[in-house]
Design goal:
It contains 14 helices and nine strands. With 356 residues, the protein is of the alpha+beta class. The protein folds into two domains: 110 residues, Phosphorylase Kinase, domain 1, CATH 3.30.200.20; 232 residues, Aminoglycoside phosphotransferase (APH), C-terminal lobe (Aminoglycoside 3'-phosphotransferase, Chain: A, domain 2, Alpha-Beta Complex), CATH 3.90.1200. The strands form three sheets. The protein has a five-stranded antiparallel β-sheet with strand order 1-2-3-5-4, with helices on both faces. Strands 6-9 form a two-stranded antiparallel sheet. It has a two-stranded antiparallel sheet with strand order 7-8. Strand 1 and strand 2 form a beta hairpin. The radius of gyration is 22 Å and the shape is globular.
Length: 356
Amino acid sequence: MSGEINEKLIIKHWEDFGFHKSLRPFFGGEGELDKHKIKLLKYSLGHPHYKSGVWMLSVTVRNRTFPVILKVMHKGRAGNEIEINMYRKTNKTLQGVIPDVYCTYSEGDYVWTLLEHVRSIDDQVEFHPKYFLKIVPALADLHSRTFNKWDNDLYKSWLPFYHSDALKRERKQLVGKTLQAMDEGMQHEKLKAVLKPYYHMMQKILKKGPVYFPEVIKAGQCITHNDLQIRNTGCNDLKKSRWNVKFLDWESAKYYPCWFDMVSLIGVLFGYRQDFRKIEKKFTRQSVLYYAHEMEKHGVKFKKDPMDLYKMAYLQRALEYDVYFHISKFFSRNEITLLPVFLEKIKYWGKELRLY
């Protein structure tokens, strides 16, 4: 199959690919597609991205009409292969914390996936850090499902693993690249103003890498989302006291230390939202302790203090990847927003945790 995927092609393949029948186990009947209500949400299937197209469809099953998501992904792209396999191979293990997967169909260069429509939290409320406490129980549920249960036969061919030889080499190489990037940054007036107060400290710390806090790795690994921005968390009923949160868009999934996801969820948002700075400490602590509590309910008890583990995970991620990425981001996009935040955290938490 070649050419642009459009409404006409979706209508043609609705029954050809068995999408109508795929809804029967979930809703007790076949799905009738409303041909006049096909809404394109995102399209990057063509040059130069060859990524995905996303549509919202309106379907009726036994007199009930509701939206579903059709996501068409281009094969061969690394992130797409991860997401495709997440839907195909882990949908039963992670049922309830990822959108229901009604059907996947491979055709030519593409995989067509019919998914439950889950509304992004970001589209429904103006976000406040208090909502972390609504998301954390689902994150603990997600992590506990595969916690320290690496399945080599199931995952090895497609899911990045923190202890793989390839990723160990990559982290080691990034130490050198970060040192080099800092030297290059010191030659640029604007970037030098940010880097100079931390330059000698970072030189000393980076040479200890790439593993700065083995405690974070020993605390446990699992399938992590690895891009937990609020737009990638969804819930269809925010009026309930306990949100039924599901995590969306799985192209960055990895088998990584579980605490990295807490950093991704909490630390990155506070980095961008400096207007929340006065309440950052309070809500970070509440969320971290609640996560440890929820994990314990699932049988996972952390031996080290949860706040220490969070801080260690934050610094480990910043030093092994984020500092380099955000220096590079300055050179490619002239963006410098998060770099000072990471460097300041490395300074204060690094000293507290005896990193330097």
